[in-house]
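Memo to structure team: turn this sequence into structure tokens by end of day. - J.P.
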Amino acid sequence: MSTEAKKMTGFPSQDRPWMKYYPPHLIENLSIPDNTVSEYLHEHCPGEDVVAIHYYGVDITWKHVFKMVDKTARALRGMGFGEGDQIPVFLRATPEFVYLLLGAEKIGASLLCRDNTLEENVEAVRKSKAKVIFAHDYMSQEELNTFRRDSETRCVVTVSPYNSACYSATPEHIRTAIDEYYPEEPAYGPKTLDWNVFLELGERFHGEVAAPRDIDRPLFRAYTSGSTGPSKQVIHSAHTMIGNLHQMNFYGSSDEFRPTWLMTVLPPSLVAVVVAMMLLPMASNKLLILDPFCRPEDVDLEMMRYRPNCWALIPMLIEIVMRNGRVPDDYDMSHLMSCGAGCEAYNNNQIKRAQKFLEDHNCKAKFTTGYGCSEAGSNMTLPMSPLPLGDGNVGIPMPLSIIAAFRPGTHEELGYNEVGELCITGPGNMLGYDTPKATARALQKHDDGRVWLHTGDMGYVTPEGVVFTLTRGSAPRFGFPDGELATLQMENRLADAEIKGIKDEFFVIVPDTEHHHHFLPYLYLVLEDGYTVDDVREAIDNCLDDFMKPVEIFSLPERPFFHFKTDRINLAAQLVKQED
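Reply from structure team:
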């Protein structure tokens, strides 16, 4: 037995075996700075005359960003916002969102973002007690009336998608997409205020703008998407956001040139979008290209137009690029130096198809999968492991974070390769939810004195320090003592079998109405032309354990998405309704 092996305790939280993959110069003296987000960006600014953001034909310098943050902060004061207030923002990832986030930090307020149904958005505003909201100028009069009727909203500050853009430089397909957002009757009248008029309010405000400096006060409140369960408000401070951001600000960097970073479609109502897809490139000397009004189905056109070095991808986007068939066979994707997908689990079949697509187009980057959640501030792992991708391999914990598996419902840490609930302790963990009870369930102080985030995800850590994810939550099947329905593991059984006729597959797990706290699996397939479910049924049964075998198998023309994830929630609702 080697000296190194003797030192191993058998518990990931104590051994932290993943640290051997980090270069000493990277982690030496690595600690989270006690900065506000603005201070952090100032410190990492490559020069005020350098372009920080490109937005539809307009290059926005760092000098302009800082100037607009100051103007926005003063205007927020002029509107009556102050320390501790919540500012509801329903914007796409436009430059104005960045100004509002940093402006809110300056006055001691927090942004409140939600991208669910109108009723749920109104509920969030009602709870915030805010009298002013921010939205794009395509908000309908009916929507504004609903906010005014069911919350304390008295005014909406409207932002045109073209406010920071050059209209003539905006491609026609983007302009068409923007036009489609406008209803027959957009919000109008004295209860609406144009963004530029809002800024003028600041010019007439002469009181104190900046609040006392506090990096631990709430800064960003965002609701989970609701795609895997009830939507919850996650609260982060400048400290927790930088706690995540600072650990990965070397990602996608280059010593030879300044990389470009494309951010398409995804809304800043998601924590990962703000931290990992907007602030990260800005804080790591990359040119952030904001492209929020691109239709999801047109992301391939934008990729070919901008030819980015880094592209903030999710499974839905790479699936669309491959599905559209508009990327020419001879298109050279070697401009991508980092390429991967987070957001949801990616099975072996999906990984294989994505990697082949990239290789066929001369992309030198390896397609990787990541793991994270809103509650952890975004990323929890980095794809730096020596093991092959697939089977749920999501890389290693970030250098200042610790991930371990615990026996579900307990604080008992499990050893290597033992499946349990994945938990994380580290500087990126949220302040909490907006209810103490929910916060107490998620953030728990263990005997080691650390506060651990209990994610609800099932997985394990290998002796090499690599994290593997299997499924969301425990889902036992009745009649099978060891029949735990691990979604990704089941999908990979089918993927690895390479059953002829199957292009794509995914499981949907629903409650077993006849057996409390037990679940049932249903399988959805995308089949090759000419194949039916009956053609592949026997092969499916042959590669699954008895407890994994689906109650029913359904065929779909293509994988459906909802809130940027595989639409399991609506399919599950249909199945439950069908059972009733």
